[in-house]
Write a structure and sequence with these properties.
Bound molecules: beta-D-galactopyranose
Helix content: 25-40%
Strand content: 15-25%
Strand order of the largest sheet: 5-4-3-2-1-9-8-7-6
Distance between the termini: 16 Å
Number of helices: 17
Number of strands: 28
Structural class: alpha/beta
Length: about 675
Amino acid sequence: VTLIIQPETSPAFVSGSPLGKIAFGGDYNPEQWTDAVAEEDIALMHEAGVNLVSVGIFSWTMLEPEPGRYDFRRMDEILDRLHRGGISVDLATPTAAPPQWFLAAHPDSVPVRQDGTRAGTASRQVFCPSSPEYREAAAAITRAIVDRYHDHPAVVMWHVHNEYGCHNGRCYCDGSAAAFRQWLKARYGTLDALNDAWGNAFWSQTLTAWDQVVAPRTAPTFLNPAHELDYARFSSDELLACYTAERDIIKAASPDAIVTTNLMAGQFGLLDYWKWAAELDMVSTDHYLFGEAERNHVDLALAADLTRSLAHGRPWLLMEHSTGAVNWQPRNIAKRSGEMARNSLTHLARGADGILFFQWRASIAGAEKYHSAMLPHAGTDSRIWRETRELGEQLSGLASVAGSRVHTEIAILFDYHAWWAADLGGRPSEDIRYADQIRRTYDALWDAGYTVDFAHPESDLSRYRLVVAPALYLVSDAGAANIASFHDRGGSVVVGYFSGIVDSVDRVRVGRYPGAFRELLGASSDEFLPLRRGQKVTLSTGATASLWSEPVRADDAEIIARYTDGPAAGAAAITRRQRAWYVSTQLAPDDLRGFYVAVADSAGIARPVERPEGVEVVERRTDETRYLFVINHTDDEAAIDLPGQPWFLEVSSPGRATVSGDGLRVPPGGVGVLRW
Ligand code: GAL
């Protein structure tokens, strides 16, 4: 086993932790409770090692019971009490929950669904992002909170809103349509340019006046996908404008404030998080396991790697996850003993500088009373409380990890616009879902043991040796050129099927497929040959594949594998030109994993630490120190050989990890963290 330390020239290695600690805590909603309970909270937070709580996320009505009348008494007490208790505050703007008085007064601010019906109001995130009345009211409450608390000693960071777009990512009301027209005017200038970009000549969709532009509500059949794609872009921008307006109010009073909003990286696709993350001082995200999904720890790892990538390698914050079951899945499966610790330490291993939960104390009323919390209904005489305390102890033992970085040499190219475009209607196969394609790629690399980043196709790729583009259906000219130049400078590239097909307005790049990459690949095809559901094809290497095939011709590339059966029998299936590989079909998981190991070897990437299947090994480091996190997702003890003399730093329940000689033993379901 060799753990090679790569030369650390990249700026990603400049250490530093925005919070200067590993944060531990959660959403704190004490408006639900009496003062006596709130006093007890502080004592119990101490017992658990809590050092940061998010306050006021949904407290708009408490703070502004009537339009323009503010009442800060409870919030003053809450913040002062936390401050006396030495617990830091991530103070929220409450704009994700407009008050009922606001909704009653402004029915036009209530969002409209794609089918044209208006949403009900008895819930949260009930607002249209383009509503001027909503934006005005949100700015006013934000200003009032910032004026009062910008120099409160407990407040160390700001939490704008909550999970933008989670319930109202796209609104189709007339006000949104009007705002969309303005957005389109700024993008295209003239109606002619818009008609041309959208291909409106087809189906008689040519617009002859701006007021004919509508929101893409449900129609008798397919909508024009270019229209839908721009609406997705517009909707992301509208919500982002809501965020930046509040952020700017905070910054005006407190220029050095750390301002964030909680993303839902990896689990939510309606916002362009690359664009969003650039506006956050510290990227933060929420992640919830799908309890019934197999290998949901891989989904968690993907989300964590994506969040770190959105943060450009800087430490980020896990703003929410759960201690146990959630309450919004069909069957809310409880986490078993040790699972919360494994989840938390996986996030930490992959670059988080804080582990927070929804929520501190379980509600006894309201929509989320059956959602787990750090302090459950059963109180302190409970497994979850004991494991919460244990986690607090473990995290305090890992304080020195704050600010360290994760180093990777492989990036998966990932773009929200490609996602939106690839998933629209009227495509060659509905079985290609962008998120699935990303997940399959990630899975294969996770199984092979590589830690990977995600990167935007137009971003600086120079720190990687290998980039992989699964189903990068839409790619801009700049993105395609960036990928080609990465290759020309010595990088290795894997292009997956259904990549490089359209430009940034969803117009097909004519000539043989894949238009954007055929020169880079030296291989191309003249047809898509999607497979039937469940159909398998075989390749000359013995690999099996499904979902897609193409009659690939390798004009300037080596043929690595051919189709031996199926509609493309005899044609090339996998090709290689220099360091550019084309994979024209969906390889079975084991074959895909083997393929990536071979490509990574040829790209000069060191093999990951050898470990049993189902055991995750991730490294964080500073210039002086390396931390190795070993997370055992199996029911067996995991033994790992390690070079040198590691310092045993910390382990997590259940059971104890042990180091002896050059080996580490991690109990079933346990975690070991080592320090060199
Ligand atoms: C999140 C949300 C929280 C809470 C949580 C429950 O989406 O931000 O407020 O509802 O889900 O899992």
